[in-house]
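Data deposition worksheet. Section B asks for the primary sequence of the deposited chain exactly as it was used as input, without tags or linkers unless they were present during the calculation. Section C holds the resulting structure in token form. Section D is free text for depositor observations; keep each observation to a single sentence. Incomplete worksheets are returned to the depositor.
Section A, Depositor: J.P.
Section B:
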Amino acid sequence: MMPVVWRIPFINWDIPGYGLMLCFGFLAAILWGARRAARSGANPDVILNCGFIALFAGVIGCRAMYVVHYWDERFAIYGSPGRILQEVFSVQKGGFEFYGGFVLATVSILFYLWRAKVSIRWYMDIMAPSGALGLAIGRIGCFLNGCCYGGQCDLAWKVQFPYGSNVANQHWQNKVAGAELPQQLVVVAPLGASVAVLAADLRASDEEIRAADLAEQEARQAWNAFKAKPVRAGDDAARIRQEQQGAQLESAMRNAERKLYTIRKQMKKYNMTANELRALAAKYPSLPVHPTQLYSTVTAGLIALLLSAVYWRRKRDGQVICTLLMIEPISRYLIELIRDDNPLDTLGFTVSQFIAIVITGSVASTQDLQAIRGLLH
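Section C:
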């Protein structure tokens, strides 16, 4: 797991592993699709346009489906509209549903191809292998981010994610045997016990922690000095200005208190250094689980190769995209059986399994299924 692969010096911007893999996947898919289009006599610019449409629509759709799916338990609990909106856009924490992006991206691309007055079936066939390749690379980003994890596993290729990862949090919160944590690593937040917040704070450097301490001290001193001033009487305008200044100073103090709050609280409460807390956290990874993200990478990669081979021997346009819509949902359905991050909340299935069934059933009911079978003869 590597949620942050690199921090840009001087400006201290984090490069997230998930976002980096999305970029790699996008570029690889676009270049492969444009090359296929050029070899086929199609317009590579159309593929480039479809790629950008898929990127933006895919991200929006993935996030939107996740927000809708987990609205009550992960967003509505914050109450304040401002805080809810902040959480909705906190995509660096993860939280995407693949089929939401897949559906929105597909609809958006179909609309674009229709407006561009080109062969929809042909261009969808050109893009199908690239879509599977992008998915394969994107799932590596899921592995780096620690989302889309599997259930407990004792196989030789089992993996363990570090303390504070999504799966480690779930094991601890569900009181799974072997996932207990020492009190130094558990912080009670306003919405209940939380380990993820402390885990994020543990990534802060010693200099950032000292700077946060100093900023809080200065903000508190400024607030206390202001409170010691006498309240002006008689001059309403001056009193209003004083109240506004006081509100600003109090807000600045509260914001300074929240900066790296959990790690600073635990350091003071247990008289521990940040390095001691980091060393302790390293001893408490998740329980061993299936690397379902990498399973998806392998299956999507194989599907991409298969679709590329099918493209060059297809008998008519539409066969390749229909092959993708038949095979990928089956693969996703099977992997969902060993994933542990999605509840069975849609007619006894996970929402992704349900959508996979609908997609596969829809394609199987069309005449294109006969064309797909024809590829085997």
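Section D:
The first strand starts at residue 4 and ends at 8.
The first helix runs from residue 17 to 40.
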